[in-house]
């Protein structure tokens, strides 16, 4: 059934028309040209993102051949999404802590949340319990110092100058001054450890455990969805040994509200790989709301900057205002400052993917997909 659904989606995407008119402020959708412009801005400002061309047989003709999708590799995922879940039981498990001298009234009070939670496995973030170190005083100190020898290897006690005749000569030990350490015979390998050219075989390296943090990593891709006319995110996960994660393991790093609902395992459009994907059916509406809120702040900043500089907006040779993407109209474009007779541009479309990654970070909160600037 899932294979039939994927075939249906592929045909639907093939038959859908390509968006030609910019609608990123009105409807949250962008054209392929705007997707490329936003991707160029993202890869230029944040070089962890790069363009890839993918499989030539799967290339989309409405995108440049060398700019089919964006990718960033080795994105860390330090913990599971369930560790961030906050339930009604956690709300009840709160207690008031007091620090300082309560008798004088100078004590500080703090609320400890999640007091009823059990500690997770030992890791770098949670080192576990450490036993108390006993104080070495009295009999304990005497017992600890009983086995300490105050005599050096030459037989001289501490504080006594050794006889020069007792110092061994380097020549007597077979160490000539002109002997090169590099020509010395290599030491025999340890039993059970195979080496090749002085390098330890990978099979002999043990898996990290104990208080070492087990870190998953993800390869994150951004493609353009022609049917929904928005970007689409794809995830391929690896464990600490670079072995691919299973679908159930990937869903551990996805918010419970989206796992197996808006996040599913599907075929990556530019290769034969299977990857987790966030379905883009709601991307346009969410991006429209986010852009509206952010654009209002950008407009206010531009009005304040224009008022402080006292310079009019750039115009072309015919006296008309320059537009970054040839747009006209729109409610945000008609905002004017006090005493101003010119429109302001507002947020540009090349910031679209920066905003998009902040939206995706709420769906996969433990995967650090957003390494962009803050607003």
UniProtKB/TrEMBL annotation:
Q: Does the keyword Transport apply?
A: yes
Enumerate the InterPro entries for this protein. Atg3/Atg10 (IPR007135)
List the GO cellular component terms. cytosol; phagophore assembly site
Q: Which UniProt keywords apply?
A: Autophagy, Cytoplasm, Protein transport, Transport, Ubl conjugation pathway
Q: Which GO terms describe its molecular function?
A: Atg8-family ligase activity
The ranges of region (Disordered) come to: 117-138, 153-197, 303-340
In its UniProt record, which GO terms are filed under biological process? autophagosome assembly; autophagy of mitochondrion; glycophagy; nucleophagy; protein transport
Query: Is Cytoplasm found in the keyword set?
Result: yes
Task: List where in the cell it is found.
Answer: Cytoplasm
Q: Which Pfam families match?
A: Autophagy_act_C
Give residue spans, biased composition: Acidic residues.
Answer: 129-138, 162-182
Composition bias (Basic and acidic residues) maps to 312-321, 329-339
- Family per UniProt? Belongs to the ATG3 family.
Against PANTHER family, the record matches this protein to: UBIQUITIN-LIKE-CONJUGATING ENZYME ATG3
What is the protein name given in its UniProt record?
Autophagy-related protein 3
Organism, by scientific name, is Rhizopogon vesiculosus
């Amino acid at each position: 059934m899932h294979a039939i659904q994927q075939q249906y989606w592929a045909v639907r995407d093939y038959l859908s028309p390509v968006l030609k008119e910019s609608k990123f402020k009105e409807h949250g959708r962008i054209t392929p040209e705007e997707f490329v412009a936003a991707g160029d801005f993202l890869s230029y400002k944040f070089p962890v993102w790069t363009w890839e061309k993918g499989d030539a047989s799967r290339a989309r003709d409405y995108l440049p051949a060398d700019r089919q999708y964006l990718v960033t590799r080795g994105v860390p995922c330090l913990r599971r999404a369930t560790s961030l879940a906050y339930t009604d039981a956690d709300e009840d498990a709160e207690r008031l802590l007091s620090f300082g001298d309560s008798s004088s009234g100078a004590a500080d009070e703090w609320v400890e949340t999640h007091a009823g939670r059990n500690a997770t496995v030992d890791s770098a973030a949670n080192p576990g319990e450490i036993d108390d170190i006993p104080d070495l005083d009295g009999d304990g100190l005497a017992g600890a110092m009983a086995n300490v020898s105050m005599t050096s290897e030459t037989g001289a006690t501490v504080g006594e100058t050794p006889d020069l005749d007792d110092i061994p000569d380097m020549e007597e030990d077979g160490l000539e001054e002109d002997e090169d350490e590099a020509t010395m015979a290599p030491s025999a390998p340890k039993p059970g450890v195979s080496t090749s050219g002085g390098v330890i075989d990978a099979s002999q390296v043990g898996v990290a455990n104990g208080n070492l943090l087990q870190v998953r990593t993800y390869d994150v891709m951004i493609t353009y969805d022609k049917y929904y006319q928005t970007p689409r995110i794809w995830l391929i996960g690896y464990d600490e040994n670079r072995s691919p994660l299973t679908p159930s393991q990937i869903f551990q790093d996805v918010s419970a509200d989206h796992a197996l609902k808006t996040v599913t395992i599907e075929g990556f459009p530019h290769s034969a790989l299977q990857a987790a994907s966030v379905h883009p059916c709601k991307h346009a509406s969410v991006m429209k709301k986010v852009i509206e809120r952010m654009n209002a702040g950008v407009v206010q900043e531009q009005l304040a900057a224009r008022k402080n500089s006292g310079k009019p907006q750039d115009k072309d040779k015919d006296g008309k205002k320059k537009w970054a993407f040839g747009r006209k109209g729109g409610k945000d474009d008609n905002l004017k400052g006090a005493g101003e007779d010119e429109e302001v541009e507002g947020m540009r479309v090349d910031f679209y993917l920066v905003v998009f990654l902040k939206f995706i970070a709420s769906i996969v909160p433990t995967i650090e997909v957003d390494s962009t600037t803050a607003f």
